[in-house]
Structure formats: C-alpha cells, structure tokens
C-alpha cells in the first residue's frame, strides 16, 4: 500500500500518535509544530511528499523552461529539481554551445544563417506507443523562432534541433501522434509562408497559418526533415493543438483566435489587436486528417514546394476531405483529447464554459458531408451544435485540461479565477474546485496526456507567485503546485518555486519507464551517439600541426590531463579533442582554457572537442573544472602561446635543490609508503577475489575501474626504478609519487567495491533489523561507530556477545546509568568520549539490537 493511501485510510489522531511519531517522541513533534506554526494538514502534506535521503521519486516531470530555452526535470512527489537540460540556449556546465559537438546541434536551429542563442520553449512531449508514453525521447518546441528539438532520454541530452522552413511563429507544438509517427508543430501568428515581404493589407491573400508534420524516425531517434511536410491553413492565428488517439487516431485538432483576420494599428488610431481579434463570438476549431495529408504529400502534384519544403495547399486538403472547421466560443485556448480519443475539451479563455466536442458526431458529419457552410478559403464548416457533446460553466478563464484515471473525470485550469476545477466531461457536471496561487496556465496529471493517465497527483503551473515565497526582486519565480487528487477532495501539498523562464507546460512519466545510461562507451560523441572519430585512448595522446592548424588529441582521467604542456604560435587555430578514459559512474571532468571562452563537460567515456584561435601571445593555464578527486586541483596544464617572430631570452631554471641526503630520505619515504599502501590494496584484492566479486555487476564494474588504475603502476614503477638506478633520485621520487597516486585511486574505488560486496553477500536483513539500521543511521550512531573497525567509538561487532542483549538495550536507552561500571569507564577513558543519549524509543532500541545481531552474523564480511 502506498504511504499516501495508508495515510488517507487512518484517522489523523492515530497517524500522529503511531505513524509519524514513531521516530520521535510525540512531544517533540508537538513542540516543533507549535514552534513553526504547522497544522496537522501541513504535517500530512509533508508526510505525503517528503523523500528521506536516498529515496527516489515515483514520477519524473519534464517542464519547459520558457525563455531560458531549456527543459527542467523534477520529481514527484518530492518536487526536487534534478536537472536543467540545455536545449535552445547555450549552457556552460554541460558544455552546450561551448564545445564543437553541441555547437553542431545548435547549428541545426539557425534561421536564415543566423545563430539563435535562446528559445521560448513551450510544450514538451514524449514519444508514444499506442498512445502511451515510452520515455525514449522528448520533444520541445520554440515559439519565438519556430524550431523543434529532440532530447534523447538515454542521455538527457539534446541531439537535434530542426528549424521550420515556412512558419514564422508557432505555439501548437510539440504534439506527438500515438505511435510517434509525426510531431505536430502549428503556427501562431500568421505570416507569408514564402518569408518575403507582403503588405499587411494583403493579409487574407498572402499571409497563412500552417501546421508542420515533422516525420520522426524512431530507430534513428532523429527527425527526418526531407520526409516532413506542412499543411497550409488560413491566417486565423492558430493556437494549441492535440493529436487524436483511439477512435480519433489519424486526426488532429487546432484552435484559433483571430478568424477576424484583424491586424491592429494602434499607431494609426485604430483599435488594438486585443479588441479586433476578439470581435466575433466564434473562432474555428481546425480538424484535419494528418494521415491523409501525409499520404497526399507523397504525390508532387499535391504539393507546393516553398523554401525547399513540401506544403499541401488548403484546396488540396479540402478536395480530399482532410480539413474541416467547427465554430468554437471566441478566443479559446487549450484543446485536449480525452484518453479514449472520443472527446475534445476546449477551454473557453474568454468564455466561462468548457466545450466538449464528440468526435464520433464530428466523424458522422464528415462522412455524410453534412456541412453548415464554407469559410472564405473554401473549407467546409461543421455545425457547432451537431458536433458538441455539451458545455459546462466552469468559471473565469478556463485554459487547459488534464485527465484523471477515473472515467469521465478531468481537471481544468481557470486562469482568472486562479482555480483548478474537477469535473465530469461525460455527465457535464462540476465535482470539486481548489484555489491555486495564482493565475494558473497549464496543469498536468501524471502521464496525463497519454491514453493511461494516473489519478494520484496533479501539477498546477501558476504564472504568478505573489506572497508565496521570500521576495527576490521584481522578477518573481513562478510556482508549480502539487495537488493530491487521489481522494474525494483535492488537497494542495507543495509549492515549488521555478527560478527559470516562464515554464509553460509539463509532461510527466513513471520513473521506471526511463532507463538512462550512467556512463558512455569510451570514445562516444554524445550528440551523435556514435563513436567519435577523435576518440583518443591512453598512449595515443599527441599534438599534430598542419600549417597554422594545431590539433591536440588529449585524454583526461583522475587526476591528470595528458598532455600537460601545449605550445603553439600566436595566430594558430587550436583544436583540442578531449577523451575521458573514466569508466566509473559519476567521475566527470570539465575542461576550460584561460580566456578562450571554451568549456567542455566530460562524463565518463565521452569525447568532446573545443576550438579557438590563439590570437594573443601569453601563458594560458587550462584545468579540470569538476572537483573530480582529491588531486583535482592538480589536474591542469599550460597552453603556451609564443610569437614566432620574437626571440625569447634563455632562462636559468631556479629552485631550491635538496641535498643528496635529503633526496635519499625523500626517496626512501615514498618507496616505504608505496609498499605499505600496496599491502592494504592486496588485502582488499584478496577479500574481493575470495568472495567472488565478478558475480556482482555493480561490484565488478568498480573493481574493473580499480584494477585499471592499478594496471598503470608497473610502467610508472619501472620508470622510477630506471631513474633510481641511473642515480637520478629527483625523477625517481616524482615517478614513485605517481605510483602512489595510482595506488590511492585504486584503494579509493577498491574500498567502495568492498563495502558494496559486503552488502551483497550479507544474509538478508529481517524487517526489524532493517528498521534498526535506519534508526541507527537516523540517530547518527555511524558518526562514532564504524562496523568492523575501531573508530572514534568502539567497533560494535561482537558487543552483543561481550555484554549481552539486555545490557546493550539498557545502555542504548540510558547510557548514563552505566557510566560508573568499570567496563564503560574504561571505554570512556580510551575514547575520551561518552556515548550520548539518542532518545531512541524502546521499539527502535529493540530494532537496533536486531540490527546488531545481523552485524554479528555477518562479522566476517566487515
Ligand atoms: S499555452 S498557458 Cu503557451 Cu501552452 Cu496555455
Ligand atoms: Cu578532473 Cu577535476
């Protein structure tokens, strides 16, 4: 049973006395509630959303980052932000726009040759199979500069940006067809598709709306631009769209808000757009058959080629019964297709109603060619009443809709009223409403735009956050609110300030549908997801010169960059291909060169390139920008830029010299240290081998990494020995030091592997022992006690045998009562510490005793 449901099933008194309070004396919780002014409702909300350290979320949410041009990833129910994925905007941490591989992705988004360094990202969408989310790829559109991006969810990296060849502004993307055949992108503000100048007086003749059907190649994970095409639409300012599913699969729907075709003119004394564009009582819902449009587009007779791109004209769509209009209340906003595809719910925006259209009724009218008329462009209009299932008065400013798992239940956002309304679109009645803070735009239930929405959580994306958070200046964060929708009343549980862009919309997915990589295969170009032609392995590092072009093949591994000195001439063009030789998870390096405005992120296995012109003479340190290891600061080198036309005076190397005796002592010391360190490594290796580490993949990969490091020692050691035998102790000390570096790295990963293996091999913990371990950690007992080792407190292994269960129980409950016993006195003297009273409950203490039994049973492992 999920915790949330459990909480729901119990009366609050019982929960507070037995459930939440288990860990703390109830008086302590009472005191905190009083001191912080928390109500029982607050405590429940916290219990529903709080994730203890190490616990993972059930859902991942992908939010558009608005004008930041990024995607924000956070978890539900904890609302913890996990990542900003760089999409349309350069982002230095990920090297995005600062390394050559990612610049190529951004280049796909150039418009008329101009680089776009930002985007107004709007609507994210997952790939789908039979209308269910697959979690393979995410798409997001850029409203400002009509483009579409593909993010691979194996890497959480943007791998493609395509730029729309015909439309100038868009809003109705990204919407994915139920088997990811196409990603739809509909225009917003009408403009000439040929991108030429046409006076506004020619609006009706020369300006057009359009919807682009981007063909997605699921195997390649890329949009195929040549197989993509566009359907021409009237200049009605199309708004949001949605693809049909189930019974409406093959069709798609787009709202509009300027069927008046008004073009403003405040400066000429004319009424503004806002008046002119909302003059009529009705606008048009566009209904089109994307499958038929895609078919039609294959025949050159059916298309106009504009800017090298196929466009199916309105007449062709109409002649083939693929495009229709239905009146809808004026200036609506969202159109959302129900999970079964039977109903379309349209938010009125300027109308207090939501309108529910019945697709089966629409289809009947289409099949019978039962038209109510035609618009100026010859598109058949279907009768509104005959298409409607019904309308419901919801409140002021209905915008978007999200669906529940329960049949007929859905949620609509009210922008002006700042509310979420739960209602039934089949029975057409309102069920519940809740206030949000404030001015909500989109909302989303978990997997809410799929055929299988979940009924547990709802996110409200509030545009305003006045009075919700600490003020941080006139530009306020926005507010994503988490609402528990599992019960009969909606409950607000969490406010997440979003500190980036206007995050328009989110999509969410069960976390277990995602299987991201943790490392790359060695030598991978993460943006093409193929082996990089510049991959460099250990021993292949080199600098090549061709005229004024200098190409460096470099590697990075804890904790050095090879090469550590690069010398070029002023005026050279320098390309540095960097390869991470790391295989261990989370061992990321970064790369920056002083004042060259380049930065790369090197996750394990990645190959990436930075490029710059060495225009000034000078010395330019380069270094690793991630705190990757204890020797991270030492992970650096020098780029030396010389003027080839200058003579530089020779210099005498200075520096204090050690006496031969000092040098001899230093050499002996490092050799001894290495012997001692190696002995430790050998005990760990013995342990790992004896226990058969190969059988445990997680341990195996750590051991492989550790042995990799260890395997580098013989070569370095022989250099040390060669130097020593030549009498060059200075070099010998340096090489021995490098031996030690490799040993430290080996031991670091080796010890982690050992701890992990011990855990794999240990007998399974009883439930009580598991609770005991948690209590032990929560109480901070591990601050003084290390299992299997004497630390700042005694090793607990065997203490049950030494002192008996009852004694350990009593001592944990009340340490002071035993401070006068000779045994305890001795311990206090030895460790110079008294065991503090952690105020464990009797239950917790019993559990800890069970945990200690488990430790004793597995004593040989620690
Ligand atoms: S739209 S707030 Cu830009 Cu998705 Cu309705
Ligand atoms: Cu590599 Cu810091």
List the helices and strands and how they pair.
Layout: H1 3-9, H2 12-19, H3 26-36, H4 40-49, E1 59-64, E2 70-76, E3 81-86, H5 100-107, E4 125-129, E5 132-142, E6 147-152, E7 157-163, E8 170-176, E9 182-187, H6 203-206, E10 209-217, E11 222-233, E12 238-243, E13 251-256, H7 273-276, E14 282-289, H8 290-296, E15 304-306, E16 309-312, H9 314-319, E17 323-329, E18 335-337, E19 343-347, E20 353-358, H10 359-367, E21 373-374, E22 380-381, H11 384-387, E23 388-393, E24 398-403, E25 409-414, E26 419-424, E27 429-435, E28 440-445, E29 457-462, E30 478-484, E31 491-498, E32 506-510, E33 524-525, E34 530-531, E35 542-546, E36 549-557, E37 560-562, E38 565-569, E39 573-580, E40 589-593, E41 599-602, E42 607-613, E43 618-623, E44 636-642, H12 660-690, H13 697-711, H14 713-725, H15 729-761, H16 767-778, H17 799-803, H18 805-813, H19 822-831, H20 842-857
Parallel strand pairs: 11-16, 36-39, 38-44
Antiparallel strand pairs: 1-2, 1-32, 2-3, 4-5, 5-6, 6-7, 8-9, 9-10, 10-11, 12-13, 13-14, 14-17, 15-16, 18-19, 19-20, 20-23, 21-22, 24-25, 25-26, 26-27, 28-29, 29-30, 30-31, 33-34, 35-36, 36-37, 39-42, 40-41, 40-43, 43-44
Bound molecules: (dicuprio-$l^{3}-sulfanyl)-sulfanyl-copper and dinuclear copper ion.
(dicuprio-$l^{3}-sulfanyl)-sulfanyl-copper is lined by residues 122-123, 171, 240, 333-334, 399-400, 441-442, 504-505.
